[in-house]
Write a structure and sequence with these properties.
With 161 residues, this protein is mainly α. The chain is 70% helix and 0% strand.
Length: 161
Amino acid sequence: MLRKIDKDGLLLCELQAKSFEASADFATVSSEIFIRRFMNSKVAKLMDTGDILQLNIHAKDVYDRIEEEYGNSKYGSVKYTKNELFWIGYIYRYFAYTYELSSVQVYKIVKPKELRGLFLPYHTMDPAQAIERILEAKNLVFDEEAEFQRQFEIFKRIRKQ
């Protein structure tokens, strides 16, 4: 069963989204490199456990921790827009939180370039719905009970016709 998004989950989503967005101004690496570093970082592990909420930390602080962990570099040049970065950060954290997966696991399922390509069609959707569509496109099912229920509802609709 999926975990419902709650106050802590929303705070984590917002912090990660703002951290990704801040990378547009501060990162000297490409957006994809920043995201890869972030998703594999110590900060991401603190977000995975929720422990980061015990700290008084802001988006710029998160960026500084990533820079401290990986060092300064000028690797890559493609920069995403702030809106794209915000949405990608939010979706990654929402996905990790509600499916109870680590940042690394979520990153392996869907890469930043793919999310960027989905930004325009999906950014106005509810995050849960966007994630469901991403998983459907990849033929991945994490919540078998919900999937069975969805298929059963389709079956009932078809039978009524």
